[in-house]
Amino acid sequence: MGMSVTISVAGEQDTEQIFRLQYLCFQSEAALYGNYRIAPLVQTLASLREELATDCVFVARLGDEVVGCVRGNLTEDGAAAIGKLCVHPRLQGHGIGARLLRAAESALAEERGAKKFRLFTGHRSEGNLRLYRRVGYQTVGTSQGADGVPMIVLEKQAGEYAATA
After folding, report:
1. pLDDT of res. 43
2. Cross-sheet strand order for the sheet of 56-62
3. What totals of helices (H) and strands (E) does the chain contain, helices first?
């Protein structure tokens, strides 16, 4: 019988696995835009450690292996910015991303008082957009990423977090 994927709060011991997973997962996004300087690919290990110390970070584990990750933090307007959601390519399409989102949304609303959730994804990232819309996010605008990639801004109200799959 196979192991099941568990979702838990990330710890400092997960830093290097998250770093490697993020680099692997965002290769397809970089290829989609022809831009290998997107934020997840140029993030340093030191800045990831800082995020783990301050942000709300969850991982998906298959045994001892980190196979998914998501981060979130509270912004000045009371919204929770959720980012760098990634799931190992071999496990995509099995609901792990939605489970990670639900864990982050729950913690950000209940522990940090988020009133709404906000995330960004590239305008060509159809798989990401499908997931976010399926779990209740709606497009509220566009922006330009620091790396030059046109981004779609999506939001949903904090009271809706329980509805995610």
Report:
1. 95
2. 5-9, 56-62, 65-74, 79-87, 116-122, 150-157, 138-144
3. 6, 7
Residue 103 exposed, middle or buried by CB count within 10 Å (0-12, 13-18, 19+): buried
- Give the DSSP H/E element, type plus range, for residue 144: strand 138-144
For 7, the token pair is 């979702």
pLDDT single digits (tens) 58-79: 999 999 999 999 999 999 888 9
Specify the 3-state DSSP secondary structure of 90.
helix
Total-model pTM: 0.91
Tokens read off for 124: 């060509």
Q: What is the pLDDT of residue 1?
A: 41
Tokens of 78: 């009371």
Residue reference for tokens 């192991």: 3
Structure tokens at 6: 């568990």
- Taken in order 24, 29, 34, 36, the sign of the CA dihedral is negative
pLDDT for residue 160 is more than 80: no
